[in-house]
Every structure is written in C-alpha cells, then in structure tokens.
Amino acid sequence: MTEKPLNNRAWWLVLPVLLFVLFSALLPIMTVVNYSVQDAMAGNSYFWNGDGWFRDLLNSQTEIGARFSDALTRNLSFSFAALFIEVPLGIAIALCLPRTGRTIGFYLVILALPMLIPWNVVGTIWQIFARADIGLFGAALTGLGLHYNDTQDAVSAWCTIVVMDVWHWTPLVVLLSYAGLRAIPDAYYQAARIDGASRWATFRYIELPKLQKVLVIAVLLRFMETFMIYTEPFVVTGGGPGSATTFLSIDLVKIALGQVDLGNAAAMSLVYNLITITLCWIFFTIMTQLDRRGNP
User: What pTM did the predictor assign?
Assistant: First the structure.
C-alpha cells in the first residue's frame, strides 16, 4: 500500500497573512534599532552613537542603568509572585469543579468573565475598588484595622496590583487545567480506586503528570503577560507611590514619551524584548524536559 503524498499547497493560503505579520513586525523593530544606535538632537538631527545607549543601560552605575535594574527586579518579583499564586490556585479551583452536570457550563462562564474585561477597564474597576474611603476592598481592609492606602503606601500598592492580576487571570489557569483534567481517561481513576489510592496520591501520580503539558502553556502565557504588564498598574497607581509599581513597560513609556529620550528608550525596549524571549525559552525548555522525564 503506497502512502499518500504530502500536500503542502495549503501553505499558499497562509502565506499572505505570514507576510503581513512579518512586515508589521519588522518595520517597528527596524525603527527601534535605528533609534537605539543614534542620538536625536533638536531639529530632527541624528548623530551616530553606536552601542553607547546599551553600555549605559547595562551599567548599574549610570542613572538609566540603575532605573533599568530596579524596574527589572520589580518585574521579575511581580511575575514570580503572580505565578506562585495563580498556578496552584487555578489547579485547586479546577479540581473542585464538577466533571459532569448541567451546571458546569454556568460555572465556567462565570469564571471566565474577568478575562473578557479590557485591561484599562480592569484598572479603572480596581482603582475605585481599592479606595480606602468608598472602595469595597480598601474600605474592608481599613475597617479591619489594617493600614491600607494604595496611593501612598508601597506595600499596599504592590499587594493591590498582585491581587488584581490574580483576580483577572487565574480563570485562564482554571480553564486550561479543567480541560486537562477532562482529558484524563476514566480508566486511570478506576485503577486508582481499585488500588485504594488516596485523593492526594491520585492527584500526585495521575492528575499532575497529565497536566504538565497544559501547565507549560499556562505558565508561558501568564509569564509573558505579567512580565509585560502595563495598563492595569498604570491606571491604578501610575507606577507609584514613588517607583514601587514602576515596571519596565511603564518606565519605558516615561522615558520615550515623558522625557522624549528616544535613544535610551529604544535600547531599553530591545533589551526588554530580548529578556522576555530568553526567559520564555528557559521556562519552555525546563518544563518540556520535566514533561519528558515524567512521560518517557
């Protein structure tokens, strides 16, 4: 029996879209690269600066280097804090959802509602919600005797941004985890019941290994989103108080538009993009290696 020849002509249908995406991606990158190696002066005059902006950016002794280092630290801290909360919480909620029944669709729709809200609207909601005088969240914490003020206290602002992101994006982890759990054949659970496995043993040796591929997607999506977060903290705190919630994206906009320092902003955006790609590649490599070890 001869094998059917592979037909790749379908790629011609996708080619126009790929060319458009490639053009729309390369043009801004080329513009940023152009600004990163030049110094803009008054009257739209540009002078060659080489790698000067990059050397200043990667030197923590310079002003721009210190700002970049501090913002990068805040970005990484926020990303890991969000992942540390959202991934276990999303898995736990998915485990609590019923596998069958008429109500499961209703539960999933309710859980997915926060993801449908635009980022700027989420920031506006939490800007009001976190106010200590009229906001339910802020007034509740103040009523409990806690010192909470997200506009003046750095810890309060930081916690508000983390809680807001957990509320907004934990449903994504829930939906992915629930889909992974539904894909596990019932034969595994029947074998576990026959062997007298506990609930923890079932989760540890059956459900968690089967969820690893789904969790790779969840972690990558959530890390990219948290590492590039901009709209929500900008609307809620404006990057303050001080620089407590000034992440790389916010600092980049301040340098580019506020200070009109295009050279430093272009260099920072390129390094920012490179760090994002590198960290995502590291995450993907580690988690796929763990998946291969768990599923030989």
Answer: 0.85
Reported as half-sphere exposure (CB side, CA atoms, 13 A), residue 7 has a value of: 4
205 pLDDT higher than 80 = yes
Domains of the chain, with CATH numbers? 68-294 (1.10.3720.10)
Report which of 132, 164, 136, 162 is spatially closest to residue 148, judged by C-alpha positions.
Answer: 132
Cα–Cα distance for residue pair 221/130, rounded to 1 Å: 27
Among candidates 102, 105, 104, 162, which has minimal Cα distance to 130? 162
For tokens 């002509």, name the residue: 9
SS (H, E, C) 66-80: HHHHHHHHHHHHHHH
CA distance 2 to 246: 62
First vs last C-alpha separation in the chain: 32
Percent of the chain with pLDDT over 90: 18
Residues 255, 269: contact at Cβ < 8 Å? no
Q: How far apart are CA 263 and CA 255, in angstroms?
A: 9
Q: What is the pLDDT of residues 49-103, one digit of tens each?
A: 788 888 888 888 888 889 899 999 999 999 999 999 999 999 999 999 888 778 8
Please state which of the ranges 20-29, 250-259, 262-271 shows the lowest mean pLDDT: 20-29
3-state SS, 98-131, equals CCCCCCHHHHHHHHHHHHHCCHHHHHHHHHHHCC
Residue 161 near residue 230 (C-beta atoms within 8 A): no
Amino acid at residue number 126: W
Amino acid type, 248: L
